[in-house]
Amino acid sequence: MGETRKYLAENLRMLRKRNSMTQSELAEKAGTSTNTISDIECEKTWPTDETFEKIADVFSIKVCEILMEPKNLDRLLEQQNANAEENIQKYIDLLFEVHEAAKEIPTNVIQKLHYNISHMK
Measured between alpha carbons, how far is 38 from 9 in angstroms, rounded to an integer? Predict the structure, then answer.
């Protein structure tokens, strides 16, 4: 259990940092206390099944992924981000095609979308 508890603590910190979230913000979103989040990250406590599910929901991941070896979770998240960026780029390209065909989407809207997506990293 020791190694798994360590992975959980590291992953929770990593997920919070990736999402620019404090322990307090995570606790609020997960419907638990800041002390609970702190205790999990300090390896003092093990979350209930319900807390696990709520935390996973906050980060849009599966419960089992929270327990992965941190480098593997990091790799998985990076791949998901790459896939999301690729899909967003496809959507922008489609918007450009629609714009060219229909001339209904203002160019400045598409340019703003493109700028925001390209600066997501």
Answer: 9
